[in-house]
Write a structure and sequence with these properties.
about 375 residues, mainly alpha, two-stranded antiparallel sheet, about 5% strand, globular
Length: about 375
């Protein structure tokens, strides 16, 4: 056997090679295959638990997500919240500032909204009160976002740990506020705020309770897409994300960009708090964010920070999540069954990104191979 063939035979039969490029159609085909595999595995898991026909399982999921007008709009409402958080994280993540603090920023925005509803409900015209609530919620989130940005810009602290710890601080602030706002007394909850007057509640639009939510989130999504792609600030965010040294060499003030970007990211996440409290639940608690801030990180990453793709990914996750809640109830499963199904889907969606970035390369069989 020649020396050349000996060397060749030492090479692995299959190896992973990083792709130079991949077409958009092929990338989304891989994601579609991942979703289908996830649905199959999720069905097998649930069938193993319930012994039910998989078709019945998925019909139950569809029914739970869009089976009635109310369920459809609840699903849309949750998609909007998830999409808005992902939009808020996009500028920071594009800059490679790892903002893990969306939960805290949402809670602070929600707390600001609840405070204004409690103390100014009935004292201001509802239109004025809503404007004040939206602005105050955004400012509260902005402050919670700019704190770690300041320490990152001037003291090079670890933003991941900093933003994560601020989530727990925000939870304690909410707990503190609930002590003074609890209704009824001794319940340790705030209850539905202004249930009689609906002061500070988002009004119905187009005959639907969540119509205003749709309009505001879609406008924000379009605005951020334009901002990131066509504005000078969006360009500076991209340059800083690629290399701070390159940005400084190009005359970009990196510290200013970090502060400005996290102000924007925090403000959007703070607005989400208002979207939940004034636009949906009309109450505040430590579970107001409900883990959405962490799930939205997956949505933003999987979408490659593309707002249009975020709509699709958010819709898929929320559709399955809402449907899973229904089948958990329908088949008498533990409430964590919905989390299991969502986790399976997320696992496959994250895993498929590996095959989008890498491909299998098989060793060609030479003449001397046996």
């Amino acid at each position: 056997m020649s020396k050349e063939n000996v060397v060749l035979n030492k090479e692995p039969m299959v190896r992973m090679v990083k792709r130079d490029t991949i077409s958009t159609a092929k990338a989304w085909s891989i994601r579609l295959i991942a979703v289908l595999l996830a649905l199959i595995v999720a069905a097998l898991v649930i069938v193993g638990i319930t012994g039910q026909n998989p078709i019945q399982i998925y019909l139950g999921i569809i029914d739970g997500a869009v089976g009635s007008n109310r369920r459809l709009w609840v699903t849309i409402r949750e998609i909007l919240v998830m999409l808005c958080i992902a939009i808020g994280l996009t500028p920071a993540f594009k800059m490679k500032f790892w903002n893990i603090g969306a939960e805290g920023q949402i809670l602070m925005g929600g707390t600001a909204a609840a405070a204004l509803m409690i103390f100014f409900g009935g004292k201001l015209p509802n239109a004025v009160l809503l404007i004040v609530i939206i602005v105050a919620s955004a400012v509260a989130g902005l402050i919670w976002g700019v704190i770690p940005a300041f320490f990152k810009a001037y003291f090079n602290t670890n933003e991941t740990l900093f933003t994560l710890m601020l989530n727990y601080v925000a939870m304690q602030i909410v707990t503190f506020c609930i002590v003074f706002w609890e209704n009824p007394a001794g319940s340790n909850t705030v209850g539905i705020i202004n249930s009689a007057t609906k002061a500070g509640w988002f009004p119905s639009l187009f005959g639907n309770a969540y119509g205003l939510n749709v309009v505001l989130v879609l406008l924000l999504t379009i605005g951020i897409a334009i901002y990131m792609k066509y504005s000078k600030h969006g360009y500076e965010i991209s340059v800083v994300g690629e290399s701070e040294f390159t940005a400084e060499y190009a005359g970009i003030k990196v510290k200013k960009v970090i502060l400005r970007t996290m102000m924007l990211s925090g403000a959007i996440c703070g607005f989400v708090g208002c979207l939940i409290v004034s636009g949906a639940s009309h109450t505040i608690s430590t579970s107001t964010a409900g883990g959405r801030g962490f799930t939205a990180i997956i949505v933003a990453w999987m979408s490659k920070f593309n707002p249009a793709a975020m709509v699709l990914v958010s819709a898929l996750l929320i559709f399955m999540q809402q449907g899973s809640i229904q089948i958990a109830s329908q088949f008498g499963l533990n409430e964590n069954a919905s989390d299991i199904i969502t986790g399976i889907i997320i696992f496959f969606l994250i895993g498929c990104e590996f095959f989008i970035n890498y491909q299998l390369e098989f060793r060609r069989k030479g003449k001397g191979d046996r």
